[in-house]
Amino acid sequence: LPLSPFGANRSLYDIVMISVARDSVVGEVEAVYRQEGGRMWRALYAYAGDEEVASDAVADAFAQALRRGSAIRDVRSWVWRAAFRIAGGELKRRSTVVLGGMPEGAAFDAHPDAQLLDAVQRLTTQQRAVVVLHYYLDCSVRDIARRTGLSALAVRAHLSRGRKRLRVLLGDER
Amino acid sequence: MSDLRTRFRSLDDLRTPDLWSEIEARATADRPFGVGGLRWALIAALLLLILALAGAAMLGSGVVRWPLAVETSPRPSMNPQSSLAQNRTDLVVWQPPGGNGLTGGGTGVSYAVFVAVRNTSNGWVHVDTFKSSYSILSRGGPQMDRGALGAVPETIGPGQVGYLVGGNTYQTMKGITPADFAGATVSVHIVSSAVATPTATVVISGIGWTKGGTGLFATGVATADGAAVPYVVVNVLCIGKDGKVLGEAVGPLHDLLPGKPKTFETEYATARLKAGQCASAFGAAQPENFDMGNHGGL
User: Fold this and answer.
1) What are the start-end ranges of the E strands in chain B?
2) Among partner residues B8, B25, B290, which is closest to A148 by beta-carbon distance?
């Protein structure tokens, strides 16, 4: 069948626009990574207690954001949510997770507040996520909900419970 | 505990790896256009565009004739019409004495927004809680506050009622009193879409109220239907005689097995409810996607 030049133009136009959009997406995703990657890694490290899980979750979340391109409206929120899900999924997969111990590693060795990270590891996974996001990243309940995929109602419940438990674990119960 | 934020800041001392090259490598692993190949794709596309434009010019000059009919496939609607009818919207305002129990003190105003909706379609509808929002406008018009709306439940069956819930019950508004809300109106933006029938739902029944240290807490029974549900957050709304929602109680529940009722007791009430206020109750359980195992129990 003969090709329609209008059809061909349309499809070329699409290709050009898609390419331009993808370049734009790469730039946006990289900008978010440069801005937030470090804090995200640290938050995930405190959450998961494992450098490998943190690195894998960050890399995978941003890689998925690149692949999805302009389908993601809010890259920042999306990668945070994806990274926590990936890390959480990995923790769940590793059924050998042992509570109450922070694995050793270069990052952990460099951290001055081992007692805090050890206490965080004794919280449930949900409590850990909301506590880290709230106290390390100053996220509001609404923002935590956006970043984790939890409902705001669940965030409040976990934050309340996690805070109480941390108080006990850190020997600050009054 | 008071210096928890300061202690968490010590995380900033951690060295972090630069993962960007790894991210690019993973992204290009299964992409039709690699990140590095985007510019080449763009150049190739531009060349093809020039050739095609030349062809079009020839067509315009009559040198070449092509069929002019161009067929395009219909595009799916990106904004499906919401099937949720908004029944009523309630705004509850209160002043937590000495803070709300979580902020640890201070004064201010807390409020909650409850929007009753009914699914008027023949299928299930999912509320997009990332896009649904509310704004509170004062009597004079200026916006007092705004925020995201959660939903209980997020997926609502045909003909069923659900509630969208918002508010600032964790962080109080400073420098105002409940009187400042007099005559305020709530503007609601609901985004929803049709979804397939969920494989598992949770039914709440036997709701009762019990008095706790900071107000009323709800008790009842949750039963999973269709499949096991590892983790839900139960919401119970207290509804007054006039149908106005007065407050809510929230609590998590784990490991629901299909057909096996499990009792629950909420652990956190977002408004200071009083005994006798609740003429009826609405209960729903929202399965949470953030089930990452329950290491250590809640």
Assistant:
1) 84-94, 110-119, 124-127, 133-137, 143-148, 150-152, 155-156, 161-167, 185-189, 192-195, 201-212, 215-225, 229-239, 245-256, 262-265, 268-269, 280-287
2) B290
